[in-house]
Amino acid sequence: MQILNTIIRGQSDGILVPVPQYTLYSAAISLYGGYLVPYYLEETANWDLDVNNLRQSVAEARSRGITVRAMVIINPGNLTGYWGECGQRGGYFEMANIPPQTVDKIYKITSISLSPNVSGQIFMGLMVSPPKPGDISYQKNVVCNFTKGAMYSFPQIRLPPKAIEVAKKVGKVPDVFYCLKLLEATGISTVPSSGFGQKEGVFHLRATILPAEEDMPAIMESFKKFNDEFMEQYEEHRGYSRM
Questions:
Q1: Which residue would you say has higher pLDDT here, 59 or 48?
Q2: Which of 16, 22, 77, 153 is the most exposed place for a label (fewest CB within 10 A)?
Q3: What is the rounded distance in angstroms from the CA atom of residue 94 to the CA atom of residue 235?
Q4: Beta bridge partners of 42
Q5: What is the CATH number of domain 142-234?
Q6: What DSSP string describes the chain?
Q7: What rounded mean pLDDT belongs to the chain?
Q8: What per-residue confidence (pLDDT) applies to 151?
Q9: What architecture does CATH give domain 1-86?
Q10: Residue 81: its pLDDT value, please?
Q11: pLDDT at residue 184 is higher than 80
């Protein structure tokens, strides 16, 4: 609605609206003192846009002294998902050379909008500041590429030096040591990557994603709990980064 207030400067400013139209558009344009410029959709073509009719509507509006400033794109099928789902919505704008007092008013107006899109704001925040290693959304010292065409996942486990040292003392390769501890604590069976070959000092494990989808949240929670406790046990907090 605030955008309409910017677009419509007076009665000579028009907005193209498709017919049949959603009555909210005509009411809002009337509220802000603008002029509704109708253009007609082609029902026999599944409510498709008729470009010739659109041009005619613009020409007629201009002949009446109306300046077309915006266009609404929608059709009756949209309300039933004709064009597909819109997905999550998010947006932002930059305010430059605007007095601080005016900026405060803009924030105030925005904050009282009906039904703020909280999820959209969260997603927008994640876009401009995505999760980083060390954030709570990351498991400690675990990095994994996307699982694509198969049922296997191959995460890298960044083992603390103390864990590597203990593994060697008990005669185990470090990733074998981790996988055995995981199996003993949770029953989750994984394959240490030392059997596949890897760079020196880099450790992975291979997990086969076989459980039913509805069982995965509990399994991942169990794995996370074990991993957090394992890292906490072997981390050297002075000088060793949690990643």
A1: 59
A2: 77
A3: 44
A4: 48
A5: 3.90.1150.10
A6: -HHHHHH--STTEEEEEEES--HHHHHHHHHTT-EEEEEE-BGGGTSB--HHHHHHHHHHHHHTT-EEEEE----GGGGGTTT-------------S--HHHHHHHHHHHHT-SS--HHHHHHHHHHHS---TTSTTSPTTEE-PPP-SSSEE--EE---HHHHHHHHHTT--HHHHHHHHHHHHH----EEGGGT---TT--BEEEE--S-GGGHHHHHHHHHHHHHHHHHHH--TTT----
A7: 82
A8: 80
A9: 3-Layer(aba) Sandwich (3.40)
A10: 45
A11: yes
Q: Which residues, in sequence order, are CB contacts of 114 under 8 Å at separation 6+? A: none
Q: What are the extents of the domains in the chain? A: 1-86, 88-130, 142-234
Can you tell me the distance from the alpha carbon of 152 to that of 175, in angstroms, rounded to the nearest whole number? 17
Q: What letter represents residue 209's amino acid? A: I
Residue range 52-93, pLDDT digits in tens: 999 999 999 999 999 999 998 877 655 444 455 566 666 677
Q: Which residue has the tokens 């997603």?
A: 123
Cis peptide before 131 (omega within 30 of 0): no
Q: What is the model's pLDDT at position 238?
A: 42
